[in-house]
Write a structure and sequence with these properties.
Blueprint (H helix, E strand, L loop, with lengths): L2 H7 L3 E7 L5 H10 L12 H11 L7 H12 L5 E7 L3 H11 L7 H8 L3 E7 L3 H14 L18 H25 L4 E4 H6 L1 H12 L20 H13 L7
Parallel strand pairs: 1-2, 1-3, 3-4
């Protein structure tokens, strides 16, 4: 891809949603996507999704990853030429290594490589204040297979309380969050923070605050559509939290 028409179509602006499991990143990305002004926020660079995306856009991530990156950014940007994508902490370093290995995006810092690949790149980080509830949500998703709860999706099996699994998920939450903390400190980046709890309490307000940070304007009469993703938190999660805390009385209150 190249030439005048490529330059006319290629994104002018980009932002990366920096996430870990069960922080509400689907809720956030779906809300931004629905505005038709802030890209689609998908995991374009998770290898298991790349085969379908290559078929959709006529690309080859295995033979030409640089071309895949450019092609996806060009094809998935909206008419205002904003491209958004989501990266989870667990494959951040793999993604950075793949970008660098192409040799197409420079040899400087990780931030420099990212900025070369994605024009005017900004960072939005979504976090969850209550880490135990986050770990419980992950444990349930691992058992049910429901990572994105929407109408029509069905669980592969009913979840069962598993204190050891919840504890492991809590360790995973801490480790994954540390990946982003280290990356932002190393690259001297200050991301725009979004809290899951705030997103649930004031969905439209938080979506609009992210758009304001990105300097993306909506039409004057535009409204924010209600979320399609359903929150997992319910009586089961509350009961699991109570039982886990009884088994771990010294755990700090969040």
């Amino acid at each position: 891809m190249g030439g005048i028409f490529h330059n006319l179509r290629y994104p002018r602006r980009s932002f990366m949603v920096c996430a870990i499991a069960r922080t509400g990143s689907n809720l956030l990305c779906d809300g931004l996507h629905a505005t038709r002004r802030a890209g689609r926020g998908q995991q374009y660079f998770l290898p298991k999704f790349e085969e379908d995306l290559c078929g959709k856009y006529g690309l080859d991530a295995q033979k030409d990853f640089a071309g895949y990156v450019r092609g996806v950014a060009e094809s998935a940007a909206f008419g205002n030429r904003v491209f958004s994508f989501k990266i989870m902490a667990w494959y951040l370093q793999t993604f950075l290594n793949r970008l660098r290995a192409t040799g197409a995006f420079g040899e400087g810092s990780d931030l420099g490589v990212l900025q070369s690949a994605f024009p005017r790149l900004e960072f939005v980080q979504i976090l969850r204040r209550n880490k135990l509830q986050q770990a419980i949500s992950k444990a349930r998703a691992m058992q049910t297979g429901l990572w994105k709860i929407q109408e029509g999706n069905e669980a592969r099996r009913e979840p069962e309380f598993d204190a050891a699994l919840i504890s492991k998920c809590l360790d995973d939450v801490r480790k994954d969050e540390a990946v982003w903390t280290e990356f932002f400190a190393r690259e001297k980046v200050t991301p725009f923070p979004v809290l899951y709890e705030d997103l649930c309490a004031n969905y439209e307000g938080v979506i609009r605050s992210v758009l304001d940070f990105l300097k993306i304007k909506l039409p004057r009469d535009a409204s924010i559509a209600p979320p399609r993703t359903i929150r997992q938190s319910d009586a089961v999660s509350a009961e699991w939290e109570r039982r886990w805390r009884e088994l771990n009385p010294h755990f700090a209150t969040l």
